[in-house]
Amino acid sequence: MRFGLDVGGTKTDAVAVAPDGMIVGRVRRTTGWGPDAVVATIADSVRELAEVTGVRPDDVTSIGIGIPGQVAEGTATVHHAVNLGVERLDLSAALGPVFGVPVRAENDVKAAAVGGYAMHGGTGTVAYLNLGTGIAAGLVRDGRIWRGVHGTAGEVGHISVDPHGPLCPCGQHGCIEAFSGGGSLARRWGRSTALPVRDVFDAADAGDAEAIALRAGFAYGVASAIRVLVLTVDVDAVVLGGGITALADRVLTPVVTELERSAAASAFMRSLRLGDRVQLLPPGSPAAALGAALIGDADPVEEREPLAHG
């Protein structure tokens, strides 16, 4: 039995994965702030998950953790998880002695990519495109994360697709993230609401011209990311996940429409059938927690230096 956890800035999602790959238990907890609170959140989640599933501690073979920040490949040391108040934290040293099993960690988007790959069917090459506060992708080929030479494979959020587009916090204009990131949409919308992206889509449905333009820009940015992923890696599928995908078809439909519109003038682009390659994870999908469980059970690799992500 493998346990996997997705440690987010507000909540922690934990799943128990049976030997056949099926999720047999799931719990959620509020994530604490700071290193000690994060460790306590994970430990309490593991204990609760064991209780809910009736799993004995000696039946748990590994614990995998998906977490924001920089994680050296094959380790459980996270750096610069600013949304959790963590500068550096060795989760293996903190949790391994407590539970007596291997503990490994991975950046949360890469963990979600592994989970999305498994949920897609676990074959071929899949890109997971995370639509959240920021935009980033994870690439999985034959079950393994494709990191690139410097670990930046999939960092599509800061590809500029319009030099005259909106300013991105990275300093460029027209980045994919500037068009489609939840943080950027909230800043450009400029209204104080609990769910600014949903508010933009609701206002667009009601005919608000500014919101319609922002929604169109969002679709343009996501469609651009999908084109980049297909044209550079020729993935079998692009799986969309992240908080914004809670809007489900309200997100997918304009993106597919934009892909079809932009391909109308090109027989080559039409032949790629981009719209058919896009899939949306079900709302509330535990992709990152599932991926973390699978990563936690993987063979360790030589430690590498952690790398920054946008």
From TrEMBL:
InterPro entries: ATPase_NBD, ROK. GO terms for molecular function: kinase activity. The keyword Nucleotidyltransferase does not apply. Keywords: Kinase, Transferase. Belongs to the ROK (NagC/XylR) family. This is NBD/HSP70 family sugar kinase. It comes from Microbacterium invictum.
